[in-house]
Amino acid sequence: MGDNYSNEKSYMKVINYIKSLIRDEKLCIGGKLPAERDLSEMLGVSRNSVREAIRTLDIMGVISSQQGAGNFLTGNFENNLVESLSMMFLLNQINYKQISQLRRALELEAIMLAIDNITEEEIQILRQIISQLEQETEENNVILDKRMHYNIALASKNTLIINILQALSEVLDKFIVDLRREILSQEDTREILKEAHIGMVESLIERDKNLAYESINKHFGVIDLKLNRDENEALKNKD
Amino acid sequence: MGDNYSNEKSYMKVINYIKSLIRDEKLCIGGKLPAERDLSEMLGVSRNSVREAIRTLDIMGVISSQQGAGNFLTGNFENNLVESLSMMFLLNQINYKQISQLRRALELEAIMLAIDNITEEEIQILRQIISQLEQETEENNVILDKRMHYNIALASKNTLIINILQALSEVLDKFIVDLRREILSQEDTREILKEAHIGMVESLIERDKNLAYESINKHFGVIDLKLNRDENEALKNKD
DNA sequence: AATCCAAATTGGTAGTACCACTTTGTGGCT
DNA sequence: AGCCACAAAGTGGTACTACCAATTTGGATT
To answer: Which positions in strand D are less than 7 Å from the protein's CB atoms?
Structure first.
């Protein structure tokens, strides 16, 4: 009966209000939200509820809080993805293999889009990274590796894919330092990986989608090999 | 100086504590979290802070709150993704095209994985959906379309990809009902889409990755066409 | 043994008070 | 006039209390 609409949770009122501010362009990125006490009064909810909403938007990456200054609309979503993926990991809902498969799909799409959209400057950056790969310290290789993938993603010009790839990279850093290090420390796999990387950059220079496809395959072939071996060992340990 | 480590925000203490419960397997999916008042006392923080943490985990999809009963560990992450993507939309950080590109990448990976992993039962389900596509009501087509994509995703056995695709589908539903309806209401595009769908199922039956690739291309070719046309019209309207 | 109702439990919300940090503005100094 | 310092105001961070609303629990009644 009583359609009094008050079933809406208080903190949702706040979130929806902030959404409406964004929609009506009364609030833009970088802008400052009304003070918590003001929001509280305006919407007729307690400051607790306001803060629950703010905290939520904070974790989502929509806003960032600065004590003493205010809450500001930002729009950094990578961190949110990292948190979510970490949680999925913790809950055993995903494993390395699934992340690797997702990453493979996105890297492939990214490089294909990059071939269509990359600029001359972006190619220069990649050329430079590749040439630096020659003076290989193990430590440097990890950094250069990440920088290369990141720059290819950037060239795709797809914010969403860039963000997700970045988040995946961070999660992998957090959970499988060992695997990355192992791959890079072995002569043979490192060599294949290097070939794959060079192939990827080459494909961007030549706008060669077939080469891109092959290179991505080569790249993730190495990783899958390791993952499958780890999986088998895990199974053996169960006996 | 004062490395007193108390810089950690109170609500982060709570989140980390819950994470540790999960890590130590003292808390499993479906399990009930300690009561808010207990958490508050245990960790030496106010109930406010506990609630900010709980709310955050709630929005992330990690837990779900039931008034009077308790907070329970769930692990439904789709909703979180939907919220985040909606926000990115609102903030104009992403557009239809980028979502479509991401979806294309995931659909492709999903069908490739499905070819390797699909079971006989899952194929039967898809066969049935395809045959139902013949008796085409516009309304039904939308539903069947979604069901088909979802079942292919399921067959990939990659939770992460399944979740993201599901989230993308919901976001698209929320924001571009018109586009979907338009594509399905036009004789020519609908026909191509149907061919693509049949091709996708066919490729799963025959374990034919080339056909899968072609079919995905055909499928998203239709969508991209519409998107590009919309984009051009938007540009024209700027004059 | 099954049912029902009251009490305890637990999440949802409001309000107040105070701390910590930042911004602002005012007054005094050069 | 311009600069600096310091006080005041503004704002997020946290704690505590009180009460409401829904669920669960457990004992009394049948």
So the answer is: 10-18, 21-24
